[in-house]
Structure formats: structure tokens, C-alpha cells
Amino acid sequence: MSDPVNHPKHYNAHPSGVECVDVAEHYGFNVGNAIKYLWRAGLKSPDPIEDLKKAAWYIAREIERLTKAKTPPPVD
User: CA-based, 20 to 30 A from 53: which of 30, 62, 63, 71?
Assistant: First the structure.
């Protein structure tokens, strides 16, 4: 039975039957969210392109975060 809050249908719609949160929770916030959007692309909404764009947004945000972390602070 589908529960729209705790267990919507698209959570286990992947052919593997695995719930993507079981994989995504092993990553940081941005990467985990990107995985969820990639995993469920086209399953939650009818437009997989929108899901892929959301995944790309999280990936770009993580790249920016990591780039800033590598950049040493300016010297006064």
C-alpha cells in the first residue's frame, strides 16, 4: 500500500526494488540529493529532464562547495 508521506510509490519504482534513500544516506547532502533525483528521474514526475536538471543543480553546488574548501583564504 502506498503512503504519500512515508512511502510514496516512486520510492521503490526503480527496477532493483531498492529504495534510493538506502543508498543516498551514505553520502553528503548534495551528492545524496543528486543520487535521489537521478535514481527516480521520470518516476516522481512525468518529466525526467526536470529531475535531471535538479540532480545537476546539486552536483554543481557540491563542486562549488569542494572548490571553495580547496581554495586557501586570501593573505592580508
Answer: 71
pLDDT (0 to 100) of residue 1: 61
Q: Show the 3-state SS of 22-52.
A: HHHCCCCHHHHHHHHHHHCCCCCCCCHHHHH
Residues 6 or more apart whose CB falls under 8 angstroms from that of 63 comprise: none
Q: Spell out the residues 6+ positions from residue 62 whose beta carbon is closer than 8 angstroms to its own.
A: 28, 30, 31, 34
CA 52 → CA 25, 37, 69, distances in Å?
A: 19, 7, 26
